[in-house]
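pinned: reference chain
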Amino acid sequence: MLKRLRIAVLLYVLLFVAGAQFFMARHTTDWDAPLWVDIYAVAGDASPATRAFVDGLSGGEFAEAEAFLAREAKRYGVGLDQPFEIRIVGEHPGPPALAPGAGPLGVLWWSLRMRWLAATLRWQADGPSGDILVFAVFHEPAAGIALDRSTALDKGLIAVANLFADRGARATNQIVLAHELLHTLRATDKYSAPSNSPSYPDGYAAPDARPLLPQTKAELMAGRIPLDETRAEMPHSLRDVVIGPKTAREIGWQNRAVP
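pinned: its structure tokens
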């Protein structure tokens, strides 16, 4: 009986936290002030190289993502010089893992645990906490090994970004972080599963181009540059990426000037 009571109380608290975050998320896309992004660095493996990389983070590792988001916001008429302020606030052992193949209940339980962790970190912060919380999980690069897909909680303002612990992967890490940040603001993926091919027209940077293919840039939430009907490639950096009109509408830029 006591165990059931403890579980009921825990679920009540978790649901309260989830509800509070939902209402907070409703006001984050007013774009009347910059959104602060708190990044917790996580060593995603036991490699000494990963440990050294995380220890060497200086705080400016995501400057390109900030500049990209400012550039795209300006294209859509957002009246902020810097819509996102990204800062590394510390290290963390790591967020709860989402089990592979988790069903709806498993995903729900994981999301509640993530929300509780985020709320706890915000309560424990020495000063004002960020609007968005990101766990940047760094992994040692290995030939032929792909990172697990990053995840974000829609309306939860929380994300897990799986990144490479390698200075040479900085450009790729910027793209992944920017993609996950927009997920926290309700932006949806613009590619088709399981092929990961960009979806037409919303997953194309220039859907009205003639000829349509090859494209020269990627739409951020599609993540790839379409080359022909069957091939697409990763962009080299955020210089080769844009935010498309549908993504802009999803994150609250829909009433701004259209580029």
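why pinned: Helices lie at 2-26, 48-55, 63-75, 104-124, 170-184, 245-250. The chain has two domains: 2-186, 190-259.
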